[in-house]
Design goal:
This protein has 13 helices and 15 strands. By secondary structure, the protein is an alpha/beta fold. Helix 11 links the parallel strand 12 and strand 13.
């Protein structure tokens, strides 16, 4: 079968690799399309995975082969599936730390979504695979996994109706967050240095949009919050300047949520006494959970979250590297690779 195989940040190309075989309880999925995630981009640009790796995990496709004992799907059925499956039973899962579950960390799609076929392990089939209704396009439902990551982040954030939330970074993830925050009855201030992103964000419900390179962000935030600062900040970017800015904009007792890391590591400095005296919380969210995936699937299927419009570029799998470069240059909002009709 064909797959886009990583060798370096300058070499991701199509080659023939063996089609995976499956065991009991598993699925062989014929990949129809795969979304390009920010984590894929980081792994390629920072060369953070071994040469020969097949990346990609935002996958939709059709069932090609059923493993022994699989009764919940049928041949030819359209499916969206996540790459990790938490058990929902261990100490970590019961405490809500799903991404630390040993099953979560051991499950994955083989060889990866940038391929014509993938093996879906039994836990993924059982816990995080969903049959796609006939009236829902792949372009909509392919956002199930990234939306689920945002759903779990919202679950971990103390949002109340009427809160004012600052979202830093209005790319595709920022726009998913915008819609989820609005569903919670909160108001959204969107911040991004790219003007076209801000215009797009207005159409997704952002109440106020600010370009921090052109507008006095702190003054506008204070004006919008009667001088308090925002109740919550969700940042899709991780850096020292963003942390400093967040601390200056969040209200006393507020929450800063980093939905971002930094490949290669990032040491930041902050005044622990400021956090202590102001009672400001800082939390992070890394991934989704089976519960969040079920909710994300429902939100998309029932039309509560708009997703298809977030796709700016549809490309063949042979152009993975060009898709990555377009994202790095901020020329694309979301890249959707078409693998099979």
């Amino acid at each position: 079968m064909k797959a886009a195989v990583f060798y370096s940040k300058d070499d991701v190309h199509i080659e023939d690799i063996p089609k995976p075989s499956i065991g009991p309880g598993e699925l062989l999925l014929k990949v129809a399309a795969v979304g390009l995630c920010g984590s894929d981009i980081d792994k390629i640009m920072y060369e953070a995975v071994p040469p020969g790796t097949v990346l990609g995990h935002e996958v939709v496709g059709t069932v090609a082969v059923l493993g022994e004992g699989v009764e919940s799907f049928r041949i030819g059925e359209r499916v969206v599936v996540a790459h990790h499956a938490a058990c929902e039973e261990c100490h970590y899962c019961v405490c809500g730390s799903f991404s630390k579950c040993s099953l979560f960390r051991s499950t994955n799609l083989h060889p990866g979504g940038f391929a014509e076929f993938i093996r879906v392990p039994e836990p993924n089939v059982r816990l995080v695979a969903f049959a796609i209704p006939d009236d829902i396009a792949y372009e909509r439902i392919i956002f199930t996994e990234p939306l689920a990551c945002c759903v779990r982040a919202i679950e971990r954030t103390r949002l109340q109706p009427g809160d004012i939330v600052l979202i830093i970074g209005m790319g595709a993830i920022g726009l998913l967050f915008t819609q989820l925050v609005k569903l919670q009855g909160a108001k959204v201030i969107g911040s991004d240095p790219l003007t076209d992103r801000l215009e797009f964000a207005k159409g997704f419900g952002a109440d106020v949009v600010i370009n921090p390179s052109l507008d006095p962000l702190e003054d506008l935030v204070r004006e919008a919050t009667e001088g308090r600062g925002v109740d919550t900040i969700i940042s899709t970017v991780a850096s020292q300047p963003v942390l400093d800015q967040a601390l200056s904009l969040v209200r006393d007792g507020g929450m800063i949520h980093f939905f971002a890391g930094k490949r290669g590591g990032l040491n930041v400095s902050l005044d622990i006494n400021e956090l202590y005296e102001r009672e400001v919380g800082i939390i992070t969210t890394y991934s989704s959970s089976p519960r969040a995936l079920r909710e994300a699937f429902r939100l998309i299927a029932e039309g509560e979250i708009r997703t298809e419009e977030l796709i700016s570029h549809r490309m063949p799998l042979s152009e993975v590297l060009e898709g990555v470069r377009m994202m790095v240059r901020h020329e694309a909002r979301k890249v959707y690779f078409e693998v099979a009709p």
